[in-house]
């Protein structure tokens, strides 16, 4: 299989983030790439080299996850500020805010029809939201520790989630019940996703492993141990035949799932790789990491019409669909270790001849006292404070902005600092506000530590209660046996 592949090549690299790149996703039309960062911003990179990039400002803490809607009209982002935002990916940069959870939001993902959004959080819950009606639908609450990732199946009937309780859980969206739990992990489960046909899920762990399960038979199909550090993210090729993974060992690995072996190791990043993502067509993939860069790679694994194939998969709605050719089956033993035959690719990133795009900053200025006029929020009713009777729900931005964004791209390129034009903040005031924000960051970190300690205390109390229950049952059994002995002695007398 590897002999007919075209080796991945580094097509472009994007610089604009000021801190680690934590997440990435391609738009459905393959014209944009979104990335989130620890610098609290979301970047929309236009893949046309002459187009400008957009920096969206609004989140108050690290952006942890980003996902384009199937139509490409919205981009969802999650953050450590406990909110989810839905952005219009153009120069307008308007957003709708979900007050989604009571702790860090680790993952956001649209359903294949774009009607629902699933979020995962450190508050140990997975929540499902209605996108167009802008309302909370339900919560899934059986995880016992932080939930790192949650994804819909291609047909929307299932949700897979994983977390620091070392489990991967499978949920039925109609009954809202956990129908299966996979627990074969030596550490926190960091990422989970379905393959394109929805018959398998892959999950990665902090124990450096990547596992693929057949959800129809609940059997482990493949087990890869090709990284030397924790796997932070992975992505299936649209064909389902290949998978890329990014790790804290600073490499991106490409695995051939049909042959069950590692075929490429990419060394483009200087530091841990936190995010990887294939484009919808499979001809590109992106990686981001602690070196603040987004690298875009080009490859040509297969020549199938993936749009047609995915459309066929979405029509498979029977409870137990027959296997398809693209379903994953093991061709070799379960445990797959690195082989010397894997191709090592060491691109020199600094020599890539691509002009960095001009960046236009849109959204809210974090130091603007009136920030929020482009933000309207909706929350889980169980967490929302009381509101006035006349409150009206928010509405999403009209899709006509897509046409306006195209018109904006025809303008002469130039660096524009919209924030300085809009706000005449004095240096002294800005310095004071920056100091306040730094103090708030320290307070947020302190609260996070307290939350973690409370979680540990809660777990210890649960263990104590379980032990007390066992002791009480033993004492009750002992008392009953003593009563039986005394009764037998009384009858004997």
Automatic annotation (TrEMBL):
Keywords annotated in UniProt: Coiled coil, Cytoplasm, Cytoskeleton, Repeat, WD repeat
Coiled-coil stretches noted in the UniProt entry, renumbered to this chain: 433-460
Ribosomal protein listed as a keyword: no
WD repeats: 14-55, 56-87, 98-139, 140-181, 182-223, 224-265, 266-298
Region (Disordered), start-end ranges: 364-413
Pfam families: WD40 (PF00400)
Main location: cytoplasm
Biased composition (Polar residues): 384-397
InterPro entries: WD40/YVTN_repeat-like_dom_sf, WD40_PAC1, WD40_repeat_CS, WD40_repeat_dom_sf, WD40_rpt, WDR55/POC1
GO BP annotation list: cilium assembly; microtubule-based process; multicellular organismal-level homeostasis
Entry GO terms, CC: centriole; ciliary basal body
Subcellular location as annotated: Cytoplasm, Cytoskeleton, Microtubule organizing center, Centrosome, Centriole
Record-stated family: Belongs to the WD repeat POC1 family.
Protein's name in the database: POC1 centriolar protein homolog B
Organism: Hemibagrus wyckioides
Taxonomic lineage of the native organism: Eukaryota, Metazoa, Chordata, Craniata, Vertebrata
């Amino acid at each position: 299989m590897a002999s007919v592949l075209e080796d991945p090549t580094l097509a472009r690299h994007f610089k604009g983030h000021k801190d680690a790149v934590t997440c990435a996703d391609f738009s459905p039309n393959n014209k944009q790439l979104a990335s989130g960062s620890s610098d609290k911003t979301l970047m929309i990179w236009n893949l046309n080299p002459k187009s400008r990039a957009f920096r969206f400002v609004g989140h108050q803490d690290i952006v942890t996850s980003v996902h384009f809607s199937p139509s490409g009209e919205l981009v969802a982002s999650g953050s450590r500020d406990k909110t989810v935002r839905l952005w219009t990916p153009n120069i307008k940069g308007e957003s709708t805010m979900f007050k989604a959870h009571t702790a860090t939001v680790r993952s956001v993902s649209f359903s294949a029809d774009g009607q629902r959004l699933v979020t995962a959080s450190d508050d140990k819950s997975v929540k499902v939201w209605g996108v167009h009606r802008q309302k909370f639908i339900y919560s899934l609450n059986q995880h016992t520790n932080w939930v790192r990732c949650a994804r819909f199946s291609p047909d929307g009937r299932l949700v897979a989630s994983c977390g620091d309780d070392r489990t991967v859980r499978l949920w039925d969206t109609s009954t809202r019940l956990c129908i299966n739990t996979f627990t074969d992990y030596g550490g926190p489960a960091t990422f989970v996703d379905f393959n394109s046909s929805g018959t398998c899920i892959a999950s990665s762990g902090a124990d450096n492993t990547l596992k693929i399960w057949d959800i129809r038979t609940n059997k482990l199909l493949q087990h890869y141990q090709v990284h030397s550090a924790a796997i932070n993210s992975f992505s299936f090729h649209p064909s389902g035949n290949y998978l890329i993974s990014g790790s804290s060992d600073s490499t991106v690995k490409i695995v051939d799932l049909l042959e069950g072996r590692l075929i490429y190791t990419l060394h483009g990043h200087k530091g841990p790789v936190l995010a990887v993502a294939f484009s919808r067509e499979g001809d590109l993939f992106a990686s981001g990491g602690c070196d603040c860069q987004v690298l875009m790679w080009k490859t040509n694994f297969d020549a199938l019409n993936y749009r047609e194939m995915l459309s066929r998969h979405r029509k498979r709605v029977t409870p137990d669909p027959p296997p398809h050719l693209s379903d994953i089956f093991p061709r070799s033993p379960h445990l797959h270790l690195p082989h010397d035959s894997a191709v090592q690719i060491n691109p020199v990133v600094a020599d890539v001849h691509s002009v960095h795009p001009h960046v236009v900053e849109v959204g809210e200025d974090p130091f603007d006292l009136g920030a929020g006029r482009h933000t309207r929020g909706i929350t889980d009713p169980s967490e929302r404070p009381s509101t006035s009777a006349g409150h009206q729900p928010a509405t999403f931005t009209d899709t006509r902005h897509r046409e306006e964004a195209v018109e904006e791209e025809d303008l002469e390129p130039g660096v524009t600092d919209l924030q300085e034009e809009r706000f005449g903040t004095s240096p002294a005031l800005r310095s004071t506000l920056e100091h306040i924000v730094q103090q708030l960051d320290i307070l947020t970190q302190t609260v996070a530590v307290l939350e973690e300690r409370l979680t540990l205390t809660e777990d210890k109390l649960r263990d104590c209660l379980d032990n007390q229950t066992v002791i009480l049952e033993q004492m009750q059994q002992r008392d009953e046996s003593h009563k039986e002995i005394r009764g037998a002695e009384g009858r004997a007398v």
